[in-house]
Amino acid sequence: MKKLLAVLLAVLLPFCVLPAVSTTAAALAAPKLAVYVDKDNRSFIPLRALNDFSGMTSVLKSSGSIEITKGSSSILLTAGQASAAVNGKSRTLDGRPFTAGGIMYVPLSLISSTLGVSIQWNKTAGSITLTAGEDSITLPVLSGVLPGSGGPAVSSASRTYKVGSKSFKVQTVTVSLLHPSVKLDVVLAGNQAGKTEALGSIAKRSNAAVAINGTFFDAYTDGAYKAPYGYLVSGGTMLKNSPGDRRTVFAYDRNLLTELIPGNEFMARFKAGTVEGALQAGPRLLVNGAVALNVTAEGFKDPKIQTGGGARSALGITRDHKLILLTSGGATIRQLAEIMKQAGAYQAMNLDGGASSGLYYNGKYLTTPGRLISNALVVQTR
Length: 382
Prior knowledge:
The chain is mainly beta. It has helices spanning 2-9, 23-27, 108-115, 199-205, 263-271, 303-306, 333-342; strands at residues 35-37, 43-46, 56-60, 66-70, 73-77, 83-86, 89-92, 98-100, 103-107, 118-122, 127-132, 135-143, 154-163, 166-176, 182-188, 210-213, 232-234, 237-240, 249-252, 258-261, 277-280, 284-287, 290-291, 310-317, 322-331, 347-350, 359-361, 364-367, 375-381. The strands form five sheets. It has a seven-stranded mixed sheet. The protein has a seven-stranded antiparallel sheet with strand order 13-14-25-24-26-22-23, with helices on one face.
């Protein structure tokens, strides 16, 4: 842990004012912002990420170098060069600043030690929080591969996993959350709480490449209003409140840093203003790569969740910030947890299942729901 923090410190750096981009470049999706850890365990932060820190400024010089200042402290550096001027004195850097995908990355340790930026590592979320004065930002941490540097935004696969003596054929869609083209959204059926709609219809009108069913809902009422259960957030707006609900919440911010949050902690996080989208279902399946079930503590009493088997939908988050969407038939919750672990998830949770279980990809169903559903998590590629 100490070694990783040291690396992170060496890389995070303030944002700069970049020259105007061409119309063609501006039309492309902007890369996601993430702290990058290279093969030598050196950490780098996108310069642009520090724009939110008040009192910190950066100026592009005619020489091509960038000057970053905060109060009486200053850093003058150039991409590709192994040294920088810190408060007017030359200093050798742990790693050379570099530019990738139109973003300049600078050593985090230099920013931290010179400009007074503190660092807090969150192992569960795979992120770090940088704080300077009253301002803070949280960024995903990515090792080995830069955000947006090749690889598909979305891919699908049909796999078979063995749990004990039983084999499960599952459908999966894997989403690279840091890919510049990827966007998530939580969508209500008919754009209104209480409505129901086909999963494929929700995907098509959302221009989504992928959709999976979301929260539990009152599917068996005879009334027209079929209430969704749990928190639902889209575009930073609360679509459905659920105070006191202890079930797990999947949440993401504007940079698509995702996290699974206990229900009784979610409202405080939402009020902090960092939640862009969220949906609540549960139970939690994995914590830091290990099966971690506490079904009763999350408030579940239904035997279908506690002990029974059936069609299941689940989502998982990998250590390198990919989202795994998965459907399986005939699994108990414990078996589903084992499946998600084998699929490569580091954190995972259950979604609504049974006849609601459905997965839509690239214009067709991989798993077809047996009924209309209340809401969905969708993936758009721009």
